[in-house]
């Protein structure tokens, strides 16, 4: 029996180890097995097989957009982070009352022939957010810019779709994804 195939395999593996890694990868050593593994610096994930392509960020691997644009109607309550708004200096309604108010707005929106226009009208008159002056429009935003429940709902909505009631530290919201 010849050791030639094993020697060739060993030589190939040494050559691979010396070649630079694709962009975004780091070679690390396992403490438990003393074997090399490869770390994707964008996603924080590891693998045993040597990578052949540049690492991609978690964002670029998903079909999720980098940013979205939404409008919202915010109804604050006495448990909100700041229970005051442009409409009222001291908001005393309960969270349950705020949710009931939003349910009423949802019913109006469901029955509207032009839902985006009706949404803008309601937000302009009744939203407790300063975005009311823009019909509730928050402009474009990326992940990490909004409170997590709001962000998750916004990024999961298809364009033109209305969310269910979303609860955040600011109050309760209905969100309309516009872009």
UniProtKB/TrEMBL annotation:
| SMART domains with a match to the protein in the record | WW
GO MF annotations in UniProt = peptidyl-prolyl cis-trans isomerase activity
User: Which keywords are on file for this protein?
Assistant: Isomerase, Rotamase
Q: Where is the WW domain?
A: 19-53
EC number in record: 5.2.1.8
Query: InterPro entries annotated for this entry?
Result: PPIase_dom_sf, PPIase_Pin1, PPIase_PpiC, WW_dom, WW_dom_sf
Q: What is the lineage of its organism?
A: Eukaryota, Metazoa, Ecdysozoa, Nematoda, Chromadorea
Please provide one cellular component term from the Gene Ontology annotations of this protein. cytosol
GO BP of this protein: positive regulation of macromolecule metabolic process; regulation of primary metabolic process
Q: What class of enzyme is it?
A: isomerase
- PROSITE patterns (UniProt xref): PPIC_PPIASE_2, WW_DOMAIN_1, WW_DOMAIN_2
Name recorded for this polypeptide: Peptidyl-prolyl cis-trans isomerase
| Record-annotated PpiC domain positions | 65-179
Which residues does the annotated region (Disordered) include? 1-30, 49-68
Is Isomerase there in the keyword field? Answer: yes
Catalyses which reaction? [protein]-peptidylproline (omega=180) = [protein]-peptidylproline (omega=0)
């Amino acid at each position: 029996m010849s050791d030639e195939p094993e020697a060739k395999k060993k030589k190939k593996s040494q050559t691979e180890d010396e070649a630079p890694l694709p962009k975004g990868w780091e070679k690390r050593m396992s403490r438990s097995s003393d074997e090399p593994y490869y770390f994707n610096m964008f996603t924080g994930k590891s693998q045993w097989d040597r990578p052949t392509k540049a690492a991609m960020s978690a964002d670029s691997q998903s079909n999720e957009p980098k940013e979205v644009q939404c409008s919202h109607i915010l109804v604050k309550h006495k448990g909100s982070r700041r229970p005051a708004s442009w409409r009222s200096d001291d908001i005393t309604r309960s969270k349950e009352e705020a949710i009931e108010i939003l349910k009423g707005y949802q019913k109006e929106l469901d029955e509207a022939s032009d839902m985006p226009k009706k949404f803008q009208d309601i937000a302009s008159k009744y939203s407790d957010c300063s975005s009311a002056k823009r019909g509730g429009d928050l402009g474009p935003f990326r992940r990490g810019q909004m409170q997590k429940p709001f962000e998750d709902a916004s990024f999961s909505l298809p364009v033109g779709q209305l969310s269910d009631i979303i609860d955040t530290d600011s109050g309760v919201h209905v969100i309309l994804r516009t872009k």
